[in-house]
Design brief:
The complex is a heterodimer of chains A (about 280) and B (about 260).
Chain A: H1 11-26, E1 32-33, H2 47-56, E2 62-67, H3 74-87, E3 90-91, E4 100-104, E5 117-121, H4 135-143, H5 148-161, E6 172-174, E7 178-180, H6 190-193, E8 199-204, E9 209-213, E10 219-221, E11 248-252, E12 259-263, H7 266-274
Helix pairs in contact in A: 1-2
Chain B: E1 5-14, E2 17-27, E3 32-36, H1 43-50, E4 58-65, E5 69-72, H2 78-86, E6 89-92, H3 96-99, H4 106-116, H5 122-135, H6 152-164, E7 170-174, H7 182-199, E8 202-206, H8 210-216, E9 219-224, E10 227-233, H9 234-239, H10 244-251
Parallel strand pairs in B: 3-8, 3-9, 6-7, 7-8
Antiparallel strand pairs in B: 1-2, 1-4, 4-5, 9-10
The chains are: A alpha/beta (about 280), B alpha/beta (about 260).
Chain lengths: ~280, ~260
């Protein structure tokens, strides 16, 4: 593919995005505006994540894409083949072999190490958006650290449901300063955000924002003293590999209400099955 | 005695028009000041200048802060001013919808200021919210209902509870009884009078309703065309108005 520059975007654009990424890494959790480009895919399909990936990819990298934990869904397949064609980089589905991982809605079960970059696709970067509609006001609230409103949302959860019912996109506070939307990952993944060895980059294409967590950043999920944060998952083992500690998808398997729970992280599940672990539903 | 709020020469222009011009007065702790005048006389502009919502073109608004003593709130930094706005100050809007979060339950509305100043214990926040609903005569069973299901008078009382929960020392009120029918007005005034006396609040009340200031205010300022034309003790101004406009205002009140 000589018709495209390496990784689709031109060098000046990548330079602009890298500057936003560096600024984001320097101020963890702060939303850096950037001049988001039109990408050959619709908004909502990961245009922000794709631009960030394009800016950090080098020819030596190995690339992996996850969509809701899976390597084989539409979004993951199409973005992986996009960079295969435009950048010619090696791709993999194995978490430990990848140097750049673009993800939608999950953090891999396997702990990431130094030298790896995790790129999140973010639909709405502003955690205060549905509480305060004015962007001018939310920016002011961030700059003045006025985050009382975020707890009003959690208060409403408890008063209505008896517990904090927010189960994804659960707000976190970064290094005691910025409140951040961790993208719609399940709150089960929130504890992995903090103190992670890999670099975490967040790209929102339509909203034109990039933010970042450098390695080993302190990330705290917001909560109340008498209603502490809890990382929840379905209370079952994986039907395929028997894992007790992974985040599970619930699948409906017939018209009679039959269901099974399987790991949402397909690579994790397959690796465990290859190692001989077997769940109760495995063939 | 140090005045709680000292306003000196506050002027606000909208282009060539005068919003309010050269207004000065002192407000002492525990005192209630009424500001009356017709529509467009600059009452609300003055109130917004004092409460930090508008930046006046000239003048000083000196507030006696708890920690640092008298400070000019116009030249202090925005974070400090906003901090005052959710701790020592309260602002009651004419329309409860402007002062409430309509999508959030009554308890959440009252609790917001508590959470904004760092309360992080759900049970405590809820207890205080319930207590305050009781104080403004809203049944505790309504704590999880949204203000959209409340009547106009209840919304206004909820707005007051939401503002007073952090124990402010100065309350700004913009036509607090506007748009309410007379019996609801009377109860609200009763409630406000009780709260002001019990908590030792200072308040500045902007209204065009002379009955409201007669009941609540210790002192009165009459404004016309952006200027203060007469000021004094409430009873004195209302019973023996000196300025022609004050006389007109007092004689315009309908007698039943």
């Amino acid at each position: 593919m000589n018709a495209y520059n390496f990784a689709y975007l031109d060098e000046q654009t990548k330079r602009m995005i890298r500057r936003a990424i560096l600024k984001g890494l320097a101020i963890p959790g702060y939303q850096v505006p950037f001049a988001s480009r039109e990408m050959p895919m619709p908004y909502g399909w990961g245009t922000g994540g794709v631009q960030v990936s394009a800016a950090v990819l080098t020819p030596e990298d190995t690339f992996k894409v996850i969509d809701q934990g899976a390597d084989d869904t539409t979004n993951a397949v199409s973005i992986r083949s996009f960079f295969q064609r435009t950048a010619g980089v090696a791709t993999t589905t194995a978490t430990r072999d990848a140097t750049v991982i673009q993800t939608r809605h999950r953090i891999p079960e396997e702990a990431l190490g130094e030298g790896q970059i995790l790129v999140y696709q973010v639909p709405i970067p502003e955690p205060l958006r549905f509480l305060e509609p004015r962007e001018s006001e939310t920016r002011k609230m961030h700059s003045l650290e006025e985050y009382g409103l975020m707890h009003v949302k959690l208060y409403e959860d408890i008063s209505r449901h008896g517990h904090i019912a927010t189960s994804y996109a659960y707000p976190v506070k970064v290094e005691g300063r910025y409140v951040m939307d961790p993208s719609p990952i399940p709150k089960f993944d929130n504890p992995k955000l903090g103190d992670m060895a890999a670099i975490q980059l967040f790209g929102a294409g339509r909203e034109q924002r990039i933010y970042a967590l450098p390695p080993y950043t302190q990330v705290v999920s917001l909560d109340f003293e008498d209603h502490p944060f809890e990382a929840t998952k379905a209370d079952h083992p994986c039907g395929m590999c028997g894992a007790q500690d992974s985040y599970l998808d619930e699948l409906i398997i017939d018209d009679a209400g039959g269901r099974m729970f399987v790991c949402s992280d397909t690579d994790y599940c397959e690796a465990r099955q290859a190692a001989g672990h077997k769940g109760k539903d495995a063939a | 005695m140090t005045p709680l709020l000292s306003v000196q020469g506050v002027t606000k222009r909208y282009g060539a028009h005068i919003g309010c011009a050269d207004v000065s007065f002192d407000l002492y702790p525990g005192e209630v000041m009424g500001i009356v005048g017709e529509s467009g006389s600059g009452k609300s502009t003055l109130l917004n200048c004092m409460a930090g919502h508008l930046r006046p073109d000239a003048g000083q608004v000196v507030f006696d802060t708890r920690t640092d003593g008298p400070r000019d709130t116009i030249t202090m930094s925005e974070p400090e001013r906003r901090m005052l706005g959710r701790t020592d100050w309260a602002f009651v809007h004419q329309h409860a919808r402007d002062g409430l979060r309509m999508g959030v339950s009554a308890g959440g509305n009252v609790g917001e200021r508590l959470m904004a100043v760092g309360e992080r214990h759900y049970g405590d926040i809820r207890d205080k919210a319930t207590d305050w609903l009781g104080r403004v005569e809203i049944d505790a069973s309504r704590v999880d209902d949204r203000p959209t299901t409340f009547s106009g008078g209840m919304q206004q009382r909820l707005q007051i509870a939401r503002n007073l929960v952090t124990g402010p020392r100065l309350v700004f009120m913009d036509e607090p009884t506007g748009g309410l029918d007379v019996s609801v007005q009377a109860r609200l005034l009763d409630l406000l009078r009780g709260l002001v006396r019990d908590m030792g609040l200072s308040a500045i009340i902007v209204t065009h309703d002379l009955a409201v200031v007669r009941l609540l205010a210790d002192r009165l300022m009459v404004m016309k065309d952006g200027r203060v034309v007469e000021a004094g003790l409430t009873d004195q101004v209302l019973d023996d108005p000196q300025h022609a406009y004050s006389q007109l205002l007092v004689s315009s009140v309908l007698q039943v």
